[in-house]
């Protein structure tokens, strides 16, 4: 009888262990990256808010290791079931969380490209008739024309000057495609109607867009916005930035989103000397630069800590926007949070639940990209995309990935 009881207790304990180990929150531990940057506040939140379940605790341990003959301290964040059974271990770098001012206002972006964007081909009027110089050459719409004979192109007007020096001889073009440089040879043709040498390309050296400010770092005034890149409207290519400026926008109208038909914020901004900051980066995770005139961009009373992706979980959250005319927090729900080992602008799935925002926009609309997402009073991410099938849902990017580029 005693043996039966011991065996019964053992079986029940094993079943209980399996049930707990298969709990959704516990299972999510296995998708954590092997390396991460966290703050002490993140670790406190994991334990105090039971982010990975009631039976999981997290603790930090350090050990001395030898790397290349040098001794270094390696810090690990270890997760244990019942405080005893190891489940997952993550190599971490523990940093102080910077305070950031929360954005939420629409911005206009004016960008000058690094090189020029090829948007199409054009014929050149030669003595023999019309000719397409780049025909059968490995250059296509969406390429970045970066150099001519080794000289960097800073604007469209420089191209005829650089080609003039070739005198119709062999010319080396450096182009960028998919972040890789490649060289091709062409022979420019003399356009008899303008008496200048041409390549037979349509190119563009600027771009503009509208999005939402996500944050301004209180320590160095670096800002992050949009959560995804500004792309060329014809080719869809990510715009390489030489320099740029940000401006405050005037919201002149809202088109509500519907199933299969995304809505949009209709904004207006004027390029002038009254810019609010400068842009130096346009990448997969947003637009970044230096804020200059803070008083018109942020609320000094609205600064928060950063929440790392390790602490983001399904549940209630807030979206910050000023589409009503004032900066407000709206209720949303984080439906899914992926613990991404690699950066992506689709880190989490969110749903708008606030009746006020639904009445204004129908959910998420174009122009809201970059809207800050807060959870537990911390900035954890930004809106990036809307679901075409359901405008109340969309994607968000973790603020971790944005800060890496800020």
Q: Which spans of ≥5 residues are poorly predicted at pLDDT below 50?
A: 15-24
Strand coverage percent: over 45%
Give the rounded overall mean pLDDT: 85
Largest sheet: 6 strands, antiparallel, barrel
Given this structure, which CATH class of the largest domain is correct? Mainly Beta
Shape: globular
SSE topology sketch:
Blueprint: H1 2-21, H2 24-27, E1 35-38, H3 40-48, E2 56-67, E3 70-81, E4 85-94, E5 100-102, E6 106-121, E7 124-126, E8 129-131, E9 144-148, E10 151-152, H4 158-164, E11 171-177, E12 180-186, E13 189-191, E14 196-198, E15 201-217, E16 222-225, E17 241-248, E18 250-255, E19 264-268, E20 277-283, E21 286-291, E22 303-304, E23 315-321, E24 328-337, E25 348-352, H5 355-361, E26 372-375, E27 378-387, E28 390-398, H6 399-405
Parallel strand pairs: 1-4
Antiparallel strand pairs: 2-3, 3-4, 5-15, 5-22, 6-9, 6-15, 6-17, 7-8, 9-10, 9-11, 11-12, 13-14, 15-16, 16-21, 17-20, 18-19, 20-21, 23-24, 23-26, 24-25, 25-28, 26-27, 27-28
Report on the architecture of this protein.
The protein has 406 residues and is mainly beta. The chain is built from 6 helices and 28 strands. About 2% of the residues have low confidence. It is an enzyme of class 3 (hydrolase).
